[in-house]
Amino acid sequence: MTIDKQREAILKYGRKMLTSQLTTGAGGNLSICDRTSGRVAISPSGIEYFDMKPEDVVITDLNGQVLEGKYKPSSELGFHLALYRERQDVNAVVHTHSVYATTMACLGWEIPAVHYLVGFSGYKVPVAPYATFGTDELAQNVAKGIGAYNAVLLANHGLVAVGSDIGRAFNTAEEIELVARIYYQTKAVGEPVILPDQEMERVLAKFATYGQSPKDTDHV
What we know:
The chain is α+β, with helices and mostly antiparallel strands. The chain has one domain: L-fuculose-1-phosphate Aldolase. The protein is built from 6 helices and 8 strands; from the N terminus they run αββββαβαβαββαα. The chain has helices spanning about 5-20, 75-85, 100-105, 135-145, 165-190, 195-210, and strands at about 30-35, 40, 60, 65-70, 90-95, 125-130, 150-155, 160-165. It has an 8-stranded mixed sheet with strand order 4-3-2-1-5-8-7-6, sandwiched between helices. The two termini are about 30 Å apart.
């Protein structure tokens, strides 16, 4: 993906975060890493997505040095870079302040396998310890807290989702918000039934080959 395409994708999914009610205003942030060039396209700090232009998206290297762009990169650049360093399978990061996932984060509750769609993250969604936004401590907490999962709750803050591309990272953020809402609502009524690990093993195996091909039009 060229830098121009990366910048367009940041705008597209940044605006989609708003229309999908995964964040508000200029909240949250997202990035794409080009492993070949070692460049990262990341949303700028404090600019609302519908006011943003492609050239406003900041380009840095994997050390955080700004290569292109007139604005400061997101204040959370640190944990984006930490994730890229920690996980070679990750090429995109989406950070949201979605209501139900953030509610779980503020309670300090992991999201268990209350619904099989938690498989977008893995067996569950873990919680990373709280640290002030934009700090090295938060970056370390996120990179360590996510482990091998594709999503992690940031205590008293929000959600981070990762993927091999921006579409997959965004889908994970969206599906985990749905599961967080289901978990919240089931906890409000009673005690939810949690799927056992054996079932989640089957789910994750099916997710590994999930997707459409010319002969496969199944839907989750």
